[in-house]
Design brief:
The longest helix has 13 residues. The chain is about 25% helix and about 40% strand. It has 2 helices and 5 strands. It has a 5-stranded mixed β-sheet with strand order 4-1-3-2-5, covered by helices on one side. The chain has a single domain, classed as 2-Layer Sandwich (Alpha-Beta Plaits). It is of the alpha+beta class and about 90 residues long. A hairpin with a 5-residue loop joins strand 2 and strand 3. It is globular, with a radius of gyration of 12 Å.
């Protein structure tokens, strides 16, 4: 049995205007993860994913590949303590 894990992720590259957020939500939901994703003003995408550690690790691997049409150049990952604050995965539009 794996424990819970939470990761704060910033993805750089060609990740805006290519449906990256929608694909991120779809992938997170496939893995049963909660959290959120949003565009950042300077052109990167920021996300928080939480769930069982195997699923979070799988999702982190997906961030390096990205969505069809995207071109990921760098992924920053900061592990955080799981807080269980949500049970859905949302796209934030701010």
């Amino acid at each position: 049995m794996s424990g819970k894990k939470r990761a704060h992720v910033i993805v750089e590259g060609r990740v805006q205007g290519v449906f990256f957020r929608a694909h991120t939500r779809e992938e997170a939901e496939k893995h049963g993860l909660s959290g959120w994703v949003r565009n950042r003003p300077e052109g990167s995408v920021e996300a928080v994913v939480e769930g069982d550690s195997v699923s979070v690790d799988s999702m982190l691997g997906w961030f390096y590949q990205g969505s069809p049409g995207s071109r990921v150049t760098k992924v920053h990952v900061q592990e955080e303590s799981p807080i269980g604050d949500n049970n859905t995965f949302e796209i934030h539009y701010y």
